[in-house]
Amino acid sequence: xxxxxxxxxxxxxxxxxxxxxxxxxxxxxxxxxxxxxxxxxxxxxxxxxxxxxxxxxxxxxxxxxxxxxxxxxxxxxxxxxxxxxxxxxxxxxxxxxxxxxxxxxxxxxxxxxxxxxxxxxxxxxxxxxxxxxxxxxxxxxxxxxxxxxxxxxxxxxxxxxxxxxxxxxxxxxxxxxxxxxxxxxxxxxxxxxxxxxxxxxxxxxxxxxxxxxxxxxxxxxxxxxxxxxxxxxxxxxxxxxxxxxxxxxxxxxxxxxxxxxxxxxxxxxxxxxxxxxxxxxxxxxxxxxxxxxxxxxxxxxxxxxxxxxxxxxxxxxxxxxxxxxxxxxxxxxxxxxxxxxxxxxxxxxxxxxxxxxxxxxxxxxxxxxxxxxxxxxxxxxxxxxxxxxxxxxxxxxxxxxxxxxxxxxxxxxxxxxxxxxxxxxxxxxxxxxxxxxxxxxxxxxxxxxxxxxxxxxxxxxxxxxxxxxxxxxxxxxxxx
Length: 480
Hints:
Elements: H1 7-12, H2 21-35, H3 38-45, H4 58-80, E1 86-88, H5 92-102, H6 108-127, H7 130-137, H8 140-161, E2 165-167, E3 178-180, H9 188-206, H10 212-231, H11 272-277, H12 279-308, H13 320-336, E4 342-344, H14 348-353, H15 359-372, H16 377-381, H17 384-399, H18 410-426, H19 429-446, H20 455-468, H21 470-476
Antiparallel strand pairs: 1-4, 2-3
């Protein structure tokens, strides 16, 4: 047990934040289970060939994804001292994959090189204090909206991962983008596992049972394993056939030891894209990556810190500079290892919901990722449907802060609404932030209260206008 008042207790502020060692360990496990899917999903996203016909390789991407996530999450815990976990960012990796696929002259090392350059730029902005200054310039009402938006986003991730909410194919000829289950019906045992897990987790949380979220995940996983072993349900997509009643991504199964393939480390080419695409096109791509990782992490950090209760009375996050430094390193190391930028994950909310309040939880999560490089049973054993209930419940906890927004002040209320509406609707934290920041500047100006706008908010709003105009700019330059 961790002694109260010991050097370790003081360093991690365990007692100060009302936590203890068992909570931190439970939280670390819960976060790992909630985000371990990235080790399987990232290789699928980065699976396409580049202009030379070269692929990164599933085993190598999986191994390095786990390695980088483990190292950075341990670093976040030991240096940043917050219960935040990092892994390859969904959104950035998809952008990287699409860009490689649609630009004939681009290779994987070239694209990962741009990620590295974006990370270096980010680190400079952190070390000069600019990124922290932007964080402090954001009005409190918008910071609350970020928490609410991430709550809605994380709940939607859980519902989609569980197959409870699904995208309606364009061939359906409807303007409704998503619907309940498959063709409006809830089908399959995996969905039943999700519903069971959700009811169980809610009941445990309402009863204030210690370890409620982790108990929900483990119990749902056991049920999923039993169902898969007896009914042989299989995944929803096995590479050839689609099964609407299958598991979302991981069909629960035991798998054994495998030596990790770390051959992708150091393969990035920071300036290769400039030679293949030209200075303007390569710079625009790097700018898009930079803005995405700049604001995604800031939004996630604000939301998680508020949920953990680690924000002080002035709205500041302790050790925020350290957190942002590790986050910037996530882009540099992730790009340099060819697995795309790593960033703080909203799924860390599962660990926070379990009671994690310090960096000890992150160290536990990071160690589990390092173990996952060699032994994948934990990753292949826990299906999305078993973890999704935790994300829905944590989403509720975060959305409950919506009452803190001043709904009578439309200069805050409308930007706040756009912020938390667009995060889940566009599946992007950065898009929600951009809409909120731009509308805040516009409305405050229309209200004749432009003097209340921090100068950095003008700069950020202008940057987001450019971000949203990238498609138009690329078309004007003949890049598409």
